[in-house]
Amino acid sequence: MASKAQQQPLGLKIAVYGFIFIWIMMAAFPFAWTAWGSFKVELDFFSIADWTNAITGERTKMTHGSAFTLAGYEGAWIQEEFWRATINTGIVCVFVVCTSLTIGTLGGYALSRSGYRYTFWLLIAALIFRALPPATLVAGYMLPFFEWNVWGILPTAIIVLVAMNQPFTLWMLHSFFQNIPKELDESAKVDGCTQFQAFRFVIVPVMWPGVITTGLFSFLLAYNDLIVTSMLLSESNRTMVPAIAAFLGSTYNEGQVMFAVAAVVSATVPLFFLVMFFQRQIVSGLTAGAVKG
Amino acid sequence: MKHRTFFWFFLPTGLAMLLFIAFPIVSVITQSMFAPHESVLITVENCDPFGCKKETTIDQDATRELRDSKPLGRFVGLDVYLDRGHLAINEVAEAWRTSETMGDFWSRMGNLPFYRALAFTLTYTFVCTPFLIILGMMIALAVNSLTKSMKGFVIFLSLLPFTVTPLIGSLVLFWMIDSRGILGNFISWVAADPDLSIKASTPLMWIAIIIWGVWHSAPFAFVVFYAGLQTLPQDQIEAAQIDGATCWQQIKYVVVPHLMPLVTFVALIQLMDNFRVFEPIVGFNAEAHATTLSWIIFNDLGGETRQLSAASATSVLTILGVAILLSPVLVRTWRDFKGKR
């Protein structure tokens, strides 16, 4: 393949590597910088005097005796009880992913196997729902949820996030199931299975790659959501992202920016590992057909 | 599949969407036509030796009773849409009549919250989208020419801005461009202006948020284009090389036309997604300089007084905006569907 004609000239090669280097710096450096700075005191992280202080941690040495300090983490996790938000995020993410995959696979499977015209209109409706900004729906939830007294608790937020996930899940799994040959479940039906049995014993064992990919995006949606969780959860039930948003309001003013920095770094860590382990699934999910979360 | 079986399979997901997406839309539209009750006033006549005075006070009990019995408020039709917080018909007409120049008119429009947010949302949407497509395309082309061992690592780091929570990403960038952060320091050193602060300047804030948007979404464009490049037929490239095309010509006449359907796809998706931009306004603490439609809704709903009808009216107007942006996607899907049959 690498014939002489396809070799790039040296100048171009340098330009390409230079560009990649700049992009990598843009993409990753902010996170590395913040992670490093989260172990410093505020005067080092936001150093007016000398920017190298942020690397060496001069002020941190003066205050805490060493160049690294866990003060920010201690403040965020223990004093401001960020652990509570972490547990809430865990609960929300697990339940959202499980529920939305369960009902989404059933629906997506049905859409891919039914040849009637209404499936097209259902998919179009899902596309329209997918396009709606979540913010526009939130106002509609408030009044009924207050009236029924279900505002502020985790199950409410979970079910709302599941519903908001459905349009994307359906599109993704619909196109995935269409790539599984129809003959598989049809032959099962010929052998006397009902449609559900055919789904349960023939399709379920082969559907995991697509389901895992879809599940990842459901997880990201639930984990990254700010507007639904901050509007529908009471203060004690907050998940991580609205908790960080709340830090900005309260602790910013009290000079505790480092609490927010530590919380931000803590919330990035799971995502970092997620991308590391599921890079292939994320890439294939982004490129799957003409759909994206 | 029989209608019956289809129905049972689709029921759970259909019900979830009906109850928590379709109904809320109806509920938002209804709420936007109601305004909160005004307080019930009672007039009491107090007589003292110096004569009788009529005093008007708020009847707390009656007000509470009215609010509890009709939580929706009172029907006002389209009034909420036309008030100062939304379309501001009177203010716009006033500004149109009294402004002498176009510039004056636009600056007065900029003081109305809805138009201010609409202006930034549209600018953000239509500036971010082309830039992120170009950046994504450049990254895809560059990564494609790397050796295999490096690709995985580069893709991993490239995905970070896209997968990390938008609020977190914007905070991380904001802390760096803060006047005390490393980039902020650097910028004011380059500009030789020690007082330069992004937080204090509207144009700089707009630029910063747009840069955040490109940074956040370029990885998506990159991944889609990169996947497209894998399907690029090698013989076309070889044919171009034999004809003596330079690298630039190969990209311009072979690669880009091959990726064009993906460019349309990314553009349509990103127009829809950028229109809902909201997190960076919170993260950059930018509401003094830039607001977006989603942020207005968030702001109206938050806090002590939940202004449901104001937020609902903005929601309906936002939905109309999304509908306009979405129409080309729908037309395209409809054509694809027709083509398949």
Q: What does this protein look like?
A:
The complex is a heterodimer of chains A (293) and B (341). Chain A contains 16 helices and no strands. Chain A is mainly alpha-helical and 293 residues long. The two termini of chain A are 36 Å apart. By secondary structure, chain B is mostly helical. Chain B has 3 domains: 24-73, no CATH class; 78-111, no CATH class; 115-340, MetI-like fold (Orthogonal Bundle). Chain B has 15 helices and 4 strands. In chain B, the strands form 2 sheets. Chain B has a two-stranded antiparallel ribbon with strand order 1-4. Chain B has a two-stranded antiparallel ribbon with strand order 2-3. In chain B, helix 14 (293-301) crosses helix 15 (308-340). Chain B is extended, with a radius of gyration of 27 Å. The mean pLDDT of chain B is 87. Classes of the chains: A mainly alpha (293), B mainly alpha (341). At the A-B interface, helix 1, helix 6, helix 7, helix 8 and helix 9 of A face helix 1, helix 6, helix 7, helix 8 and helix 9 of B.
